[in-house]
Amino acid sequence: MIMRNTGRRKKKKQFYTILLVSVIVMWAACVFLFCITYVVLGDYNGLGPKKSLKPNTLKQKNYFYDHNFLEYKDKNHTSEKGIDVSVFQGDIDWKKVRSTGVKFVMIRIGYSGSDTGKIFRDTNYIKNLEGAKKAGIKVGVYFFSQAITTEEAVKEAKFVIRNIRRKGIEYPVAYDMEPSEGSRINKLSTKERTEITDAFCSIIKSHGYETMVYGNLHWLTTKLDMEYLTAYGTWLAHYTDKTAYPNSFEMWQYSEKGRVAGIKKKVDLNIRFLKNN
Questions:
Q1: Strands 69-72 and 104-112
Q2: In this structure, are residues 58 and 72 in contact, taking their beta carbons and an 8 Å threshold?
């Protein structure tokens, strides 16, 4: 009888040991999943040294139109046709978009409010992301910012990272800061705007994503000190077929009045320049 009780106690002890180990493993797995999903590391350490800007070497004679899309080709470059979209384009038939030759799309992932800077996700972000990828279109994202401090810009960057992890983003992450009447960013200095832009982009880049600074000709040449931002690409917004932007740029938003099959409303048209290997 004593030996039987001893055996039962051993089995009971083994059962509770296994149960405890299982609980610990499950808890650790939950913590790990939470961390890789929601925790984004990174702090902003300030502007680095200035570096000279590379000149624009793209030649006007090498641009041409193909079915209303601007393209480019020389011995060193080719190009890809693209668009950028947000909730304002409504529901999109991505198969029809792909049939027009569109190779990439920059999707608005979110924005911060012009009054308080509160961060919101674009309500069509997931729908657009999934639809574009299913149709075989390469996806990048952009964030529309109204940050007035580097701390706010870091929060925006971490929001973006949380929402693009494991989403198969193939194109850059772009930072779009634009002024508007009564906007909270209107009184920022050039140095402050540059620091805020660098804060966002540095966090994104530290997580392994290609990063771009978006802006029109006036913004890039007078409102930012681009010599501090040479670590990132440039997404130029200039609605013309002959841009006067003097510095190098990797992507060009050349029209805001595009008409593309599958999209009922007007859409921005873009060209991405690719270097030949």
A1: unpaired
A2: yes
